[in-house]
């Protein structure tokens, strides 16, 4: 993978000290959690037979990053010998030795062992945790994802400042100072809308911006809603607007101000994290500006809900 042109804080998902990608669990837990599993000591010549049986017991080996087999040297009065320890599965699934033996039908010594239950976030931790049970290291998927991202920080900053100026300027109408901009993949601004929910409960700035772009595209059969568009908004969208953006198939959203009633954050406010919810049929990237202060108009959280 090519080196990223950005300075990235992988722990907090921050690009160039100014733009934070909202990530549910960061790069992963640095503290190792443990889980009790069944391990069987077998003769190495029985490995193929046992492996075939384990394939049929799909529900028991639920930790795919752990290797199934581990070699171990056993000392005895007649000399040293090599045995294989086989990871069978969680003790919560099979609670007694009799159940395990009845399923596997292989001669072997069973014992309960605690193994890592979460994937290590770094290669160094992988090496350390593998002393307990060998782990397959395939790299950290979050780090790989962040390294692959390319952002035009200057363009993002300029667009955020445009809607910031509108938000803090003397209001042209008696509405909330919330503004949303939609730009296409080439950076062309398609629309900028102010919130009008005082006039109509559904007329949030994001909803109005979606409607505006839909009107522009209604005669283009190749267009699909806001596909590949980038949304810039002064205040974190509410859950209703987040769902509308998700169904509009946007690519990315950048906002300036956190809102308690927002629908994007994972560990604050409602904690919905709608943009990456696994039960929904689309995902988009959400970023929070955390660089030099870009002011926005004051909005009461309760009024914003």
Automatic annotation (TrEMBL):
InterPro entries in the record: CMP_dCMP_dom, Cytidine_deaminase-like
Record's keyword annotation contains Transcription: no
Keywords of this entry: tRNA processing
Gene Ontology molecular-function annotations: tRNA-specific adenosine-34 deaminase activity
Pfam families: dCMP_cyt_deam_1
Record domain CMP/dCMP-type deaminase: where: 151-266
One GO BP annotation of this record: tRNA wobble adenosine to inosine editing
One Gene Ontology term, aspect cellular component: peroxisome
Gene3D superfamilies: Cytidine Deaminase, domain 2
Similarity remark: Belongs to the cytidine and deoxycytidylate deaminase family. ADAT3 subfamily.
Name of the protein: Subunit of tRNA-specific adenosine-34 deaminase
Organism listed in the record: Komagataella phaffii (strain GS115 / ATCC 20864) (Yeast)
């Amino acid at each position: 993978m090519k080196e990223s042109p950005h300075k990235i804080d992988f722990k907090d998902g921050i690009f160039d000290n100014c733009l934070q990608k909202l990530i549910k669990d960061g790069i992963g837990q640095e503290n190792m959690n443990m889980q009790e599993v069944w391990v069987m000591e077998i003769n190495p010549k029985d490995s193929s037979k046992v492996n075939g049986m384990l394939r049929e017991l799909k529900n028991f080996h639920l930790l795919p990053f752990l290797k199934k087999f581990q070699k171990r040297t056993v000392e005895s009065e007649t000399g040293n010998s090599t045995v294989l320890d086989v990871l069978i599965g969680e003790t919560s699934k099979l609670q007694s030795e009799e159940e395990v033996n009845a399923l596997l039908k292989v001669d072997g010594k069973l014992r309960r062992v605690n193994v890592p239950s979460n994937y290590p976030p770094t290669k160094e931790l992988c090496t350390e945790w593998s002393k307990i049970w060998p782990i397959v290291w395939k790299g950290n998927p979050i780090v790989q994802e962040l390294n692959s991202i390319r952002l035009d920080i200057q363009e993002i900053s300029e667009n955020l400042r445009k809607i910031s100026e509108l938000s803090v300027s003397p209001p042209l109408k008696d509405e909330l100072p919330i503004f949303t901009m939609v730009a296409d993949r080439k950076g062309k601004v398609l629309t900028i809308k102010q919130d009008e929910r005082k006039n109509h409960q559904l007329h949030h700035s994001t909803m109005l911006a979606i409607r505006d772009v839909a009107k522009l595209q209604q005669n283009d059969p190749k267009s699909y809603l806001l596909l590949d568009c980038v949304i810039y908004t002064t205040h974190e969208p509410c859950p209703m607007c987040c769902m509308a953006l998700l169904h509009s198939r946007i690519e990315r959203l950048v906002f300036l101000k956190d809102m308690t009633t927002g629908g994007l954050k994972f560990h604050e406010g409602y904690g919905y994290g709608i943009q990456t919810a696994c039960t929904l049929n689309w995902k988009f990237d959400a970023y929070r500006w955390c660089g030099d202060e870009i002011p926005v108009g004051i909005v009461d959280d309760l009024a914003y809900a």
